[in-house]
Here is the input.
Amino acid sequence: MTQARDTAPGPAQEMFAADEASRSLGMELLEVGTGSAVLRMTVTRAMVNGHRIAHGGYVFLLADTAFACACNSHGPVTVAAGADVDFVAPAYEGDVLVATATERTRFGRSGLYDVSVLRGDEVIAEFRGRSRTVRGAQQVRSTQSKESR
Here is the structure.
């Protein structure tokens, strides 16, 4: 299992540890801060489409996972209320993509987050996520994620 650099796991790290979908694609959680996150993923042969470029769904998934880690860094369970993505450049098999999520604002139970997906210094995609904190939901506990393995 890939872990963030922090030694004490927080809510975002616990959520990511339980995220089989993202981790099974080789995503790595590199950094988590309050309202921010950085993830990395290498495009594999299974992720390219008939045009030999990374399928947009995988690029979206990387951005969405960075968004999820950033908005869950505050502690309460938070989910996506919606998201948009603009694909700027193609990615190819073997490319290492880095998604950096940044909180723009939180208001009430809602929030706005921007995610840039880069290959080196080149922008591959820009993503904007809208979050909503779930009322009464409990944060995933590390013991639960360990039990499910």
The first helix runs from residue 11 to 17. Strands lie at 28-33, 36-42, 78-87, 96-107, 110-119, 122-133.
